[in-house]
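fyi for ur records
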Amino acid sequence: MPRPAILDRETVLGTALALADADGLDALTMRAIAQRLGVTPMALYRHVGDKQALLDGIVEHLLMEIPLPDPALPWTERLRAMTAAVRASARRHPAVFPLLLQRPAVTAGARRVRDAVYAALRDAGLPEPEIARTERMLASFVFGVAASESGGRFSVDTTVIDSDLEWFGDLLTTALSRHARDGA
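which gave:
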């Protein structure tokens, strides 16, 4: 009799991400994941809870791929580095990446990127009450551009997107710096 697969949360999430990468989010079922792992679907629930918790875990998995820049770097460099890492993640996972536009980051691992953006915005001098709203707008913009790019929406070379993001980053840096300086 074959040995049962050794399961843990990371194995289940990694398998789920690979399945969704290959076949799309619609193919992501507990039965399909279990089949790939050679276990019964019920065996998965102990490690990832229900389907919603599984999706939260995939969001976490995607965000954990994003390396956090050295907090000693200037805030502008940290935001640019995270933007580049988000775009790279979207290119690796084009079928799954839109999930970041549909689900909140609810796990501690998923929130680490948000927390790093908060820290950069604090270092930019933004008032505390404006940190969360600014991060929401930045995340929506960056994730939207990355999903659009990886999904084929843009018919331009990636160097054009690089240039566009550089231009927009300069505008944003100027606006955030001015806003922080003027206090309004």
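The chain has two domains: 9-49, 62-182. thats all i got for now
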